[in-house]
Amino acid sequence: MTYQDILRDRALADERLVVLTAENRALIRDLPPVLRDRFIDVGIAEQTMIGMAAGLALRGRIPVCHALAPFLLFRAYEFIRNSVAIPSLPVVLSGYIPGFLSDGNGPTHQALEDMSLMRGLPNMEVYCPADLEDLLAMLPHVLGTSKPAYLRITTQASGFAHSAFQAGRAEVLSVGRDVNIVVAGYLFREALRARDLLEEQGISTGLINIRCLKPLDEECLTEVLNSKSNIVTIEDHFRAGGLFTSLAELVAKRGIRAKIIPFAMNDQWFKPALLKEVLQYEGFTAEALSQKIFQEINTLMYVKFN
């Protein structure tokens, strides 16, 4: 089963679903002859696509829009804000190659602020699957939501068997006494391996997969933040506005005493390269993350007891 398979089956079962793309067919190459006039390629015209999607939604259709994440969101932001978010129309925005998945592309093609922009819009839901398996697990729900939704497309398979998807609920793989890693998106696989490496060093480590950044699973995260363990956030996004900011806002909102150690891009775009080299250069491999987390914990423990 693929993204395209689920979209095709849903469209065949529900004639309201319309697939749009701004000349990006990577995920939906075989759909035009199947959907015929319900497949619309507007060319390199993302603003036009969002305007069309809003009009279709107003007429009872369910538009699913496809483009590279930076062009889908940044070029058409005003249209998304005014024509989709404000009237709260059920338009799905499928953003391709967000974050580090843009690997060989420079800053103009990198989406490291996408979650920040989308979660900042009233009515907009934000989904950040960990891998292909997670994407497929949540896609039926996303296609059926009555709200505007941004889906951060992740097509890298990990082979991990995720639990059943529940809207607005985090996936808790384990809870640690010493540290709990909270991750959103593609870096889940590195976070999973980092947890195992820390466990091998005698560090009791938990892992929480934030599948939906908005609505956020505040109850689960409040429990983790109150656990007196060290909290680490990992995301292929700018530090401002994404996962780390979401947890920091929750800490302030609920008056929780907790220290959060963020691992994200800090006010700079990543250096373009092959994906493996990007992770190594920017320090987001499992080995690099586990080492830095280990050092942070040791430093905090030293300060606490000295």
Please name the fourth-level CATH homologous superfamily of the largest domain: Thiamin diphosphate (ThDP)-binding fold, Pyr/PP domains
pLDDT below 50 for ≥5 consecutive residues: which ranges?
302-306
Shape verdict:
globular
Series of H and E elements: HEHEHEHHEHEHEEEHEEHEHEHH
How many β-strands, per DSSP?
12
Percentage of residues in helical conformation: 40-55%
Strand order in the sheet with the most strands: 2-1-3-4-6-5-10
Structural class: alpha/beta
Roughly how many Å is the radius of gyration?
Answer: 19 Å
Strand content: 15-25%
Head-to-tail CA distance between termini: 55 Å
Using the 3D structure, state the CATH architecture of the largest domain.
3-Layer(aba) Sandwich
Q: In the residues, how many domains can be counted?
A: 2
Q: With helices defined by DSSP (H or I, 4 residues minimum), what is the helix count?
A: 12
CATH class of the largest domain: Alpha Beta
